[in-house]
């Protein structure tokens, strides 16, 4: 059984799905830093983002989960169709940038609680920004 938010309006549900993708991405980077680094050392293009080897238990890759959450925002009327193209890049850049800053950059010594708050802020920025 999957983790689902309580029954909400379609916009709130779609936004929560996008937040969940961001939390999952940053949680994986935090909990599995070696695997996270390895995942980004080989691919030279987006073709690998869709590779079956990256699929999780639900059968979709992280990139596909992100695209699905963004499509859901369009369907709910929260993201105008004309702004949908490449929204994955904006959202992915935000969470990946934070992950790298915390893993290997100047934020690597950030206390865990501040890291949690930073993650929430970046995810919320992505949700509201798209």
TrEMBL record:
Residues 18-120 form the HTH-type transcriptional regulator MT1864/Rv1816-like C-terminal domain. The keyword Transcription regulation applies. Pfam families: TetR_C_33. The keyword Transcription applies. InterPro entries: MT1864/Rv1816-like_C, Tet_transcr_reg_TetR-rel_C_sf. Keywords: Transcription, Transcription regulation. This is HTH-type transcriptional regulator MT1864/Rv1816-like C-terminal domain-containing protein. It comes from Pseudolysinimonas kribbensis.
